Amino acid sequence: MLSRVNRVAVIGTGFVGSSYAFALLNQGITEELVLIDINKDKAEGDAMDLNHGLPFAPTSTKIWHGSYADCDEADIVVITAGANQKPGETRLDLVEKNTRIFKGIVGEIMASGFDGIIVVATNPVDILTYAVWKFSGLPKERVIGSGTILDTARFRFLLGDYFDVDSRNVHAYIIGEHGDTELPVWSHADIAGTSISEWTKYKHKYDQADLDAIFLNVRDAAYQIIEKKGATFYGIAMSLLRLTKAILHNENAVLTVSAYLDGEYGQKDIFIGVPAVVNRDGVREVIEMDLNDEEKQKFEHSVKVLKETMAPVVAND
Ligand SMILES: NC(=O)C1=CN([C@@H]2O[C@H](COP(=O)(O)OP(=O)(O)OC[C@H]3O[C@@H](n4cnc5c(N)ncnc54)[C@H](O)[C@@H]3O)[C@@H](O)[C@H]2O)C=CC1
Ligand SMILES: CC(=O)C(=O)O
């Protein structure tokens, strides 16, 4: 399964794919980076442009625009291809179009002889991760959706900003669908081992209404950004980079990826955002947090919405 050097293949070099490629290059995460897009000129132009930054990169990276055959020796294939949301559209609105696109893409990846880990970012990410698992025949551990990594990052940033603490010291998770039914796990949110409610000791202006507004801003961030600039890409690029490092560096990092549930949280046969330990083999295990009753009910609702949306699409394939 391992290639001699690390190779990452990016399928879809639009806003998300090209931003992720730029982030990879900047941090010198992989020795080889191949860009693949149905729009060959876009992939070729991106490869040229990225190569021109190499003299200033921390390490050498071989970057080229390629074809699916180049996935054969890839350690990770990251799929960011497909339609994105237009203003007013939900992620779930993209399900039929992107599932059709994915059937072709995953067939091509697997035909190359690929035997690594597939990471999915395209929306609706939880459902497409399930589709990739089905289409590819790969073990569930080796199909990973970006899930709520980005939402968790947004949550940590906004909480850190509110409490005037570095977001890297905020430990708080968003779980569930990467979309409108996601939920914050307030019952296990802490800053440096101190529960959020205890932070009144350090910051007197503490108001539940502010915290509720923080979650709404997390949940609706994509809508706000898409309204202003048409797409979101830097946050997800950094999220995908973090996940890539966790895999290639065998970090056993805890990230809220879209992982397969097989009884965890009382759920089966679904990919959904939950904290999980990620390493060189993919998802090592799902971490089952002890949710309170309200969180359990919201998580169950998120699962229900995903399963209802997925059922006709998966049945057709
Ligand atoms: N999971 C997350 O947190 C996030 C997910 N996204 C999702 O990422 C996806 C991509 O978004 P953008 O980059 O903004 O879109 P984009 O339209 O800029 O890029 C999509 C790229 O996919 C390519 N493509 C389309 N069909 C293809 C095929 N069959 N084979 C190969 N390439 C193909 C297009 O040519 C284009 O270059 C969307 O579904 C978007 O909703 C975006 C931000 C965050
Ligand atoms: C577009 C999207 O899924 C996001 O920015 O969260």
UniProtKB/TrEMBL annotation:
**Which residues does the record list as Phosphotyrosine (modified residue)?**
223
Binding of beta-D-fructose 1,6-bisphosphate, residues: 156, 171
Per the record, the pathway is: Fermentation; pyruvate fermentation to lactate; (S)-lactate from pyruvate: step 1/1
Upper lineage is: Bacteria, Bacillati, Bacillota, Bacilli, Bacillales
| HAMAP family assigned | Lactate_dehydrog
UniProt keywords, alphabetically:
Allosteric enzyme, Cytoplasm, NAD, Oxidoreductase, Phosphoprotein
- UniProt-recorded name of the protein: L-lactate dehydrogenase
Answer whether the UniProt record assigns the keyword Oxidoreductase to this protein.
yes
- NCBIfam families registered for this protein in UniProt: L-LDH-NAD, PRK00066.1, PRK06223.1
Occurrences of domain Lactate/malate dehydrogenase C-terminal (ranges) = 148-315
Name the positions where substrate binds: 85, 91, 123-126, 151-154, 232
Which reactions are catalysed by this chain?
(S)-lactate + NAD(+) = pyruvate + NADH + H(+)
EC top class named in words:
oxidoreductase
Q: Which organism is it from?
A: Neobacillus paridis
Residue intervals of the Lactate/malate dehydrogenase N-terminal domain: 7-145
Notes on how activity is controlled:
Allosterically activated by fructose 1,6-bisphosphate (FBP).
What molecular function does GO assign, one term? L-lactate dehydrogenase (NAD+) activity
Question: Gene name, please?
Answer: ldh
